[in-house]
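Final report, closing paragraph on structural work. Over the funding period we assembled a curated collection of sequence-structure pairs, and we close with a single example.
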Amino acid sequence: MGIRTAQTRDIGPLARLWWQGWRDAHLPIVPKALVARRTLDSFIVRMALALPHIRTVGPVGEPLGFHLLKGDELHQLYVEEEMRGAGVAALLMADAEDRLLEAGIMTPWLACAVGNVRAARFYKKAGWALAGTQTMPTEIPGGWFPLKVWRYEKRLSAAPSAWGAAAEAELFRPSERTAEAPRADIGAAPRTIM
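Its predicted structure, as stored:
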């Protein structure tokens, strides 16, 4: 399963994946005023605008996850619910880190909504360190919403990543999982706040 550049046919499915993943992680922890502005339509618009910067995994029109980079920030990383715990998030993370390195960024950052403990565990497992808490403007239709986030950073190395190798091994290893009982011990799906 390879990582590829997202295509126009991916916009709708990726936006739905992003919207649902955002809701799974954020409904209990962010202000209701922000939740009200995070409609599926808002994610479709954002996905269409971000498409040239989206890398995804899965067949065209049926993506399993994606990442979005903005400058030195890993701005988004989401995985389809059924694929959480299968190594897809780790594979996307490794690809994002490779792209950041290719751009000459040695210490990227990401934002995680305060309280998103599952994502925080994933980032820590991937070698990202909590750098602090801050209030950041998060994009909403027609403006910005201030949101308290944990800022994570990671010093990248040009050496091959054991993290990426482990992700590939998990994805390509014959699995004993069934559709009814997915594994939950490898790389929980991270979620950023945007």
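Confidence is low (pLDDT under 50) at residues 174-194. Helices lie at 11-26, 32-37, 40-50, 88-102, 117-125, 162-172. We thank the funder for supporting this effort.
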